[in-house]
Specification:
The structure is a single chain. The chain is α/β, with parallel strands linked by helices and 235 residues long. The protein has two domains: 1-40; 43-232, Beta-carbonic Anhydrase, Chain A (3-Layer(aba) Sandwich), CATH 3.40.1050.10. It has eleven helices and six strands. The protein has helices spanning 5-27, 30-39, 57-60, 89-100, 115-124, 134-138, 142-148, 152-155, 166-174, 176-191, 195-203, and strands spanning 45-50, 68-73, 105-111, 207-213, 220-223, 230-232. The chain has a six-stranded mixed β-sheet with strand order 2-1-3-4-5-6, with helices on one face. It starts with a helix and ends with a strand.
Length: 235
């Protein structure tokens, strides 16, 4: 099957990007890459971010090769700790970063206009996406939506879908950023269900952070020390 000319052009652009990377890191500053090859990677930070093409952690933070260990998935979600009968790339990557690389920071990086969170809200409103995996995956954030966005009286216990009325969901859609931030806090909570993460948190060897990136303005919001509230990062 022949590729469309625009497809060929895009592939050519990507290959040119690889050539630029080679020139920058292998020809102009080869010592850094040689060190990464000979001594392995030793990143201090694990970033769990959305797969969204507009929010690339390495680009946003101007990081160099070896700086970040990155896990990307739809809506930057962390499932709770579970072992039996499941194959999960997210859990495996988190375990490797914490237990083998011994990262010192874990950042959950979410963003505005997240398609995964939009899919979650549509599902809660009774319009589940006609896809094989997305609906079930984003449902991981349902509890966080109930806990951090719904009225406190409702969210003291795990809310059922029936408690999420149509009016509430429509209000959530108008303020989707609240749900995006709630999902980040929910993932931070889920991280603490991993025994080897909790152990390092207690010992002070690891810290957790929530970040929310505003696509419209480029502003970054981060959680406070207790990971309960988001505050803007000011100049």
């Amino acid at each position: 099957m022949c590729n469309h000319p625009n497809q060929e052009q895009k592939l050519a652009e990507l290959l040119n990007g690889i050539k630029s990377f080679q020139q920058r890191f292998y020809q102009q500053s080869p010592d850094h890459m040689r060190d990464l090859v000979e001594h392995g990677q030793h990143p201090k930070v694990l970033v769990i971010s959305c797969s969204d093409s507009r929010v690339d952690p390495a680009i946003l933070t101007a990081s160099q090769p070896g700086d970040l260990f990155i896990v990307r998935n739809v809506a930057n979600l962390v499932p709770p700790y579970r072992q039996a009968g499941e194959f999960d790339g997210a859990r495996a990557a988190i375990e490797y970063a914490v237990r083998d690389l011994q990262v010192e920071h874990i950042i959950i990086l979410g963003h505005a206009h997240c398609g995964g969170i939009k899919a979650l809200l549509n599902s809660l409103a009774g319009h589940k996406p006609q896809r094989d995996f997305i609906g079930e995956w984003v449902s991981t954030a349902t509890d966080a939506c109930c806990r951090y966005v719904l009225d406190r009286a409702v969210s003291k216990e795990k809310a059922s879908d029936s408690q999420l009325g149509e009016v509430d969901i429509e209000q959530f859609k108008e303020h989707q950023h609240l749900v995006e931030r709630a999902a980040i806090k929910g993932s931070l909570d889920n991280l603490q269900t991993y025994p080897w993460i909790n152990q390092r948190l207690v010992s002070g060897q690891l810290s957790l952070h929530g970040w929310w990136f505003d696509l419209e303005s480029g502003d970054l919001w981060t959680t406070d020390n207790d990971n309960q509230e988001f505050l803007p990062v000011l100049d």
